[in-house]
User: Fold these one by one.
Assistant:
Number 1:
Amino acid sequence: MCGSDENCAACLYCAAWGRRRNNMNGHNLSLRILSLFLAFTVWFFVSAPRREPVSERAFAAPVSIVRMPRDLVITTPVPDTVSVRLRGRISDLRSLSSQNLEVTLDVSWVTPGDAVITLSPQAMSVPPQIDVVSIEPMKLRFHVEALRQTVVPIRPFLIGQPPPGYVTGDPTLVPDHALLSGPASQIRNVTEVATERIIMSGRSETFVQNVGVVSDSSLVRIIEPLVTQVTVPVNAEIGPVAPAPATTDTTTDDASVEKPAETKPPEKTPVQKRRHKREQ
């Protein structure tokens, strides 16, 4: 150390260095305070989600059936949606909707008969920060049948009548048979399928129309044809010919009319003659 002599050059240097060090300490303190403030700000925003309250909310999640064997069909109703209860931060729950939630059911294992499938949280597609609390119902029951095919005739579905004076003939269809596919229990009872409606009102001549072939059952599917061409004859009505009325001729030919023969009075006997003379 340089002691207490103020005229010493070393003392002057020490004094200058001391003042500089004090200035540097003050500057470093400001930087430290600023760093602490920035670190606190970053921590506050980063940790805000973790400090957000956790809540629960119920959703109606759509059910999606995947990997169904091609030769089988489900014949009993399966719900379109199930009720799910989710837990998570309020902001995360608000960003969810039923459209982006889905319960996927893998039914590749089913066989003909009754089937039961258990719904697990793993079957749901949810964000990783969301927990699945419950699913209602937890089990789905349905019936499975084998698919069968058959060929049946197509019947034209005519609606209404043509105007008076016209009649409808027998329609022709090309093609006139359809190939169907459906559950064995239903396909055996199908004897025909129909076309879409063909309106006959106002028809006064033969016409051709392409119409779709439809099935009465949602489980029975039309494989082919999906459209058929129908020709409907419309003809003028021809009734029975009425007989001509009989006419009578009032004029007669005098020559052709036979007159009754004139009869002579019978001849008188002699007794009648004598009596006649006495009376005279």
Note: The longest helix spans residues 9-46.
Number 2:
Amino acid sequence: MNISITARKFKAHDTLKEFINGEVASLEKYIDNILNVDVILSYLNSKDSLKTAEIILQVPGQTLTAEEKSDDFKKSVSSSVEKLSRQLQKLKSKKISHKSGEIENLTPIDINTDTDIND
């Protein structure tokens, strides 16, 4: 899993980067084959100074995104990771239900027939 952290209009501290890496790594418990994760941090310099974290997660066949705004980057990242964890749980349950559906739809064949293949 490749984790890319982009900080727009500021330089992210190492402690924030380590926090992000830990949070994003926790998503691997839901699905093993995460290809890329892009984390984009930005802030709006208004009186409230809203801090935005956008996480773009790529798994084979799909791209999942989550964006959250709050007064702290750690809160924004944690909320975005929670959103992605719910999306990954839903994706995993869909894959499991599709696999079990495929198994149920198989029709059995009779292998005890006395037919000769060389006829």
Note: Helices lie at 14-25, 73-104.
Number 3:
Amino acid sequence: MGRSRLVCKLEAKLQRCLKGSLCIQSDAKNPRRKLRNHDAIIETIYTHRRRQHVDKLLTQFIAVADAGSLSRAASALLITQPTLTFNMRKLEESIGSPLLERSSRGVRLTRYGETLYENARLMQRLYDNTLANIAEQKRGIEQGLSIGTGYSWWTLFLKDMVLEYQKEYPGSPVQVSLGHQFRLLDQLLSGDIALFLGHETKRLHPSVDTDFIPLTEVHNGYFVREGHPLLGQPRNRDEIELYPMVTSTPPESRHERFFDPNRWRARMKALFDQADFTFGSNSLAACVDYTLATDAVLPHSHVMKESFEAQGLRQLEVLDEATYFIVGVHVLRERRGEERVEQLIERIKSASARVLPAVG
């Protein structure tokens, strides 16, 4: 097909699609202007189709990463595995780096793939949240809540605050995400939640533009099953750390971007004091179950003592001086001043003050 014939077909197709919303005039007296118009049309269509193609490849890439297998992802996407394999190779060629490591057990992401996955997920969530916000505006929903919290704060006061809120605004949708602060920070930055409660995290990357509102101070207690060998007398940390450790905040490599990469490992150890652990889960219930069934030790906020004792755990007496951490509200700096966000912060501060001492 010659160039002039292709240009005519593209021009006609674009005009039909736009249904007159864009007026393209051909100037017979000025062929250069006409050629520029044709080139612009071709570029517009090419760019649009290329973006659609990239969006499709990214969607397929996310499916592969989530499934951990090309065959499972192909089934979920309703395409053939050879087609998906071909598309993933095309995506790797366009990125210029290997994204997937293949083996007989499936696939896993390379470090380049991890970076692409997190950013593709972020773009997907931002787009989905934008559509959800528009839909809520159309339905007239104005009083919904979307917040994140650590397990301790949900148990101690946030659950009661949410129930009170729903009595005040019956039928208002409430979304609560439970997890450790890095998972919640990920959700905050992507727009999944309006704010979250968690430990203060210092020296974050400058791109993490958040405010922190202090609420209280806590320290880690050490919890074990009834009849544990460490019970019966005060212990120092060296004795405690001889036993297997359990963590409800296992480090995840995808959160490295929140920090200076050169300081990531040291920073994680300083934050959690959990360089080594035998069992890790982002489910606190699973951590409690494991601790009840073994000689492992569960470090967690001391304010959970009553709740843990009701589940069968006992807190160890510790000789060493406790290290305190500040707990508070994390919120995007750009959202400070929004009436609903500020009202929610005040509600949380009031609910916290009923059960926990303020920061001294």
Note: The chain is about 50% helix and 15% strand.
